[in-house]
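Researcher: Please predict.
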Amino acid sequence: MSHRHPRDRTVPVVLVAGHLGVGKSSLVNHLLRHADGTRIGVVVNDFGALGIDAMLVAGQADSVTSLANGCLCCTTDADGLSDLLADLTAPATGLDLVVVEASGLAEPRELVRLLLAPTDPHAVYGGLVVVLDAADPDLEQARLADLAVVNGLDRVDDPDAALATVRAVAAGAVVGTRHGALDPALLVDPVSRPKPAQLGLDELLREVDGPHAHDEAQSVSFSSEQPVDPGRLAAFLEAGPAGVVRAKGVVRLAGDGELWEVQTVGTAIRVRPAPVRAATSGARLVLIGTGLDEAGLIQALEGCVAGADDPEPTEHAALALTRYA
């Protein structure tokens, strides 16, 4: 996919919710320690509530704190969130991802509604991530999640059973973690930037701590020279394919022939007209997640490709997918 002009650049805003003590702090700290060139903005009520690793904090000015790995941390309340997100996602900041820790700001549903409202052209909803305790998961919260993170698998006797319990009710993707170690690639594309002469604090901390492995994200690529049926592709994405956390790519729709850029996190889908240079006659998609069934996913996507024997698409057929624009 081609690069857009900086003015057209959008930044995914991910909401992280969950009960006290489930591992939200560990998850955010893990993202910051493993940013590897990806610049992350973190929005919290106060630093004590989230517990951003003190070693990563370089200095504080008003409500914005610079982190030593090129990321930013901000404090706000729910009333100030819209303005702060507009500032953080402006092209001048160069951020690649914004993470909002939801507890204390507002109910997750309220924040989701706020982010889905088109208040800022650069901030796009990146999904609701709910962190759950593997020993006692809140299944009501799991039902809300675009991505349910079942944390603390090292503290339960049967990790597979803990994951199965959540998968039975969750509409979105489900992944398991230990100590909040979620691979950042499950939320945002890694960004390659020039390395400074000295190691950053995130890299130094990893050298001190030693390896803190997370389950590496996997990817499955799909391409077709034929356009896709918008209804079948929308149904595939809405179903939350097993193991898939993110999907991205460009697709040409059967019928009107329009080209669309597709991004998903769990069952949170967003589409927009694709840039001209991303032109394809059919589809190019990448699915990212853990424990992926490559053959099964390819077969399912092949089933979304429009066939010669398909009935002629109706006038409004594209709305099955483009309603997520």
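Model: Residues 57-62, 197-201 have pLDDT under 50 and may be disordered.
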